[in-house]
Amino acid sequence: MTETTTGGDGVRSVHRALELLAHFDEQHSSHSIRDLVEASGLAKSTVVRLVTTLEHAGMLWTRGDGRITAGVGLMRWSRLAQSTWSVPPEATEVLTQLGRDCGGESSRVYVRQGTARVCIAQQEGTQQLRHVVQVGEAMPIWLGATGHVLLTGLPPDQVEGIGVAAGHGADSAARLARTVEETRARGWSASHGEREAGVSAIAAPVTTPEGRVAAAVGLGGPTSRFTPEHLDAWRPVVLEAAARLARIPFFGGIA
Predict the structure, then answer these.
(1) What pLDDT score was predicted for residue 237?
(2) Which residues have a Cβ under 8 Å from the Cβ of 214 and sit 6 or more positions away?
(3) Domain around 158
(4) Is 212 within 8 Å of 111 (Cβ atoms)?
(5) Average pLDDT per block of 10 residues along the chain, 255 residues long
(6) pTM for this predicted structure
(7) pLDDT at 26
């Protein structure tokens, strides 16, 4: 086997192992081997080999009942991630005020991770009917206002590539490119039901002193409350929140 092939197989194995870990979350804290085979589409022998490797690294653990769950080794990585990505108190204050000034909607901050957007901070709204996401959850970047905002930090050819990779056809990719250009021109974005039916959002970019898009801040909630009148009223508040976050050094370090 050549060195190139070995390297390729190694990268593929790492990718498969990470994909296997991604099947574990708060809602799915344990799996059987059969679960992982069905979810991953990999051969049983491959899944068993990956699970064994991840167990040796402390990333997975096989319980007494035979089900597989998170390993104790992940606690170290969890503490590191929380330490690295915990937003400072002044950023939490901005999010709290944003929600309060905009009818009690949930406020959030997202960053780009490849072709995904990840929520790194959230202040739940005070409305009885409110929309909540999981902090740390990865979502498609091509769907939703915060995704549109984050994509303004990429050159047009990369935006086009993400649109094509989304797999919804050339027309959909072209629409995404237009939406991102419109978002870049006006400095904010709003969306209705793109990722989840009945849910709307408005977002603006958090930029570094050099003008790079470091994050997106916005509101999310039921479409019935995200009326044109409310969006007009909330837009300057969201833009001001983005400007305040941009002055916090934390966000300059994640662009």
Answers:
(1) 99
(2) 111, 206, 207, 208, 246, 251, 252, 254, 255
(3) 86-252
(4) no
(5) 47 92 90 96 96 95 95 90 86 97 98 94 95 91 97 95 86 93 97 96 96 97 98 98 94 70
(6) 0.79
(7) 83
Residue 254 CB coordination number (10 Å): 17
Tell me, yes or no, whether 48 and 143 share the same domain.
Answer: no
Which pLDDT value is given to residue 82? 80
φ, ψ for residue 77, nearest 5 deg? -65, -35
DSSP state of 164: H
Q: Rounded distance, CA 145 to CA 155, Å?
A: 18
Contact status, residue 153 vs residue 144, Cβ threshold 8 Å: no
Predicted pLDDT of residue 19 = 92
In a shared domain, residues 58 and 115? no
What's the domain count of the chain? Answer: 2
Give, to the nearest 10 degrees, the angle between helix 170-186 and helix 156-165. 140
pLDDT at 2: 37
53-87 residues labelled b (16+ CB within 10 A) or e (exposed):
ebeeeebbbeeeeeebebbebbeeeeeeeeeeeeb
Integer Cα distance of 244 and 247 in angstroms: 5
Backbone torsions φ then ψ of 112, nearest 5 degrees: -90, 135
